[in-house]
Specification:
Elements: H1 2-5, E1 23-29, E2 37-42, E3 46-50, H2 57-69, E4 79-81, E5 88-92, H3 105-108, H4 111-120, H5 123-128, E6 152-155, E7 163-166, H6 189-193, H7 197-203, H8 208-219, H9 236-250, E8 256-261, H10 269-284, E9 288-292, H11 296-299, E10 304-309, E11 318-323, H12 325-329, H13 335-346
Parallel strand pairs: 3-9, 3-10, 5-8, 8-9
Antiparallel strand pairs: 1-2, 1-4, 6-7, 10-11
Helix pairs in contact: 4-8, 7-8, 8-9
Length: 347
């Protein structure tokens, strides 16, 4: 933190801005406060949608572009052109991955499949006939049957909040005692799930398949998460980033239009820097990234900006300025440009 405050570390402005001659076009967007806009979103570059609160950013990207693309919204726009350039559109938001505590980073990234296989190949596991499924807390076999692999018991209270108790049979470890006797490099499956992503990357250094599935978590700044941490405990920003990591792993062979809604909320500048690198990586792999954003460190690194406003509510919904960050900074009508100009010149 101090290094950023002293300007010893900073998020650098890209040396070159990408440009594109292909676009997704939204015709006559007039939902809510949008003022019959015709908007072109460039393909295969990094775009930020900016503007004061209530200027129409979420309406444009979520209600018109995302829901209209998927056929969930029929009104509020005339048409969306350019869908043929993509295999799919994905809105990466802060909604929960699951309401179940069984959802953990290791299972969401599918690294758990490889980890179970590693444990099943140990000499002790082979001697006992333990297949990979025995090292899953979601299926019968190796899981603790007292809590069905949840590691906890929920006591329903009629007029009060439910009480969560640690399972006494497994002491919260989710597995049967005989499964916890099986070790790989002196670690049980429970001890592996207590590792952080960074620790696991080092521990499984000789297993490229596991590292391939865990590395994106570290790339988006989630190296501190435990492999077995329930995703129900993650913050909204962490949920967005773990979803991003999932797409970095599993969507490499498709052309995707990614939409993000303020992914930098609550992030430290160092985390913002890692998130930016992930966005740039997505674009370099042929995807298109569009982000609703207020963070000037993120905005200054965009290839293209669509600035809405000039104010919120009925005084919003107009396109105030479009172009590179430098072009937005020269706009005399853009609130974003005013602050961006100072920010670019001070860096």
């Amino acid at each position: 933190t101090a290094q950023y405050m002293r300007n010893e570390k900073k998020i650098e402005i890209p040396k070159k801005r990408r440009s594109s001659r292909e676009f997704v076009e939204i015709k006559d967007a007039h939902m809510h406060n949008l003022k019959h806009l015709d908007i072109k979103i460039p393909l295969n570059i990094f775009t930020c949608t900016t503007g004061v609160s209530g200027s129409g950013k979420s309406t444009l990207l979520h209600d018109v572009l995302y829901r209209g693309w998927r056929g969930e919204a029929k009104d509020g726009f005339k048409e969306i052109r350019g869908k043929e350039h993509f295999d799919k559109i994905i809105m990466v938001d802060q909604s929960p991955l699951s309401t179940s505590p069984r959802s953990i980073p290791a299972t969401y990234t599918k690294a758990m499949d490889e980890i179970r296989a590693v444990f099943s190949q140990t000499r002790e596991a082979k001697a006992q006939g333990y297949k990979p499924g025995f090292f899953s807390f979601n299926t019968p076999g190796g899981r603790c049957e007292g809590c069905k692999g949840a590691g906890q018991l929920i006591v329903e209270m009629q007029f009060l909040s439910d009480v969560v108790l640690t399972c006494e049979a497994c002491n919260g470890k989710r597995f049967k005692s005989e499964i916890l006797e099986i070790k790989y490099r002196n670690k049980t499956i429970d001890q592996v799930l207590q590792m952080s992503v960074l620790e696991a990357l080092d521990f499984f250094s000789e297993h490229p398949k596991i590292r391939k599935k865990l590395s994106p978590l570290n790339e988006v700044g989630l190296g501190y998460l435990k492999l077995g941490q329930p995703t129900t405990t993650l913050s909204g920003g962490e949920l967005q980033r773990i979803k991003l990591a999932h797409h970095l792993i599993h969507q490499r062979d498709k052309r995707i239009l990614y939409l993000f809604d303020e992914p930098t909320i609550g992030l430290h500048p160092d985390d913002v820097s890692m998130l930016l690198r992930s966005f740039q990586k997505l674009v370099d792999e042929g995807h298109t990234v569009v982000v609703i954003e207020h963070n000037l460190d993120m905005i200054k690194c965009a290839d293209h900006i669509i600035d809405l406003g000039p104010e919120g509510g009925e005084k919003g919904g107009h396109i105030v300025a479009q172009g590179t960050p430098e072009e937005i900074a020269r706009s005399t009508k853009s609130h974003t440009g005013l602050y961006l100009k100072k920010y670019l010149s001070s860096k």
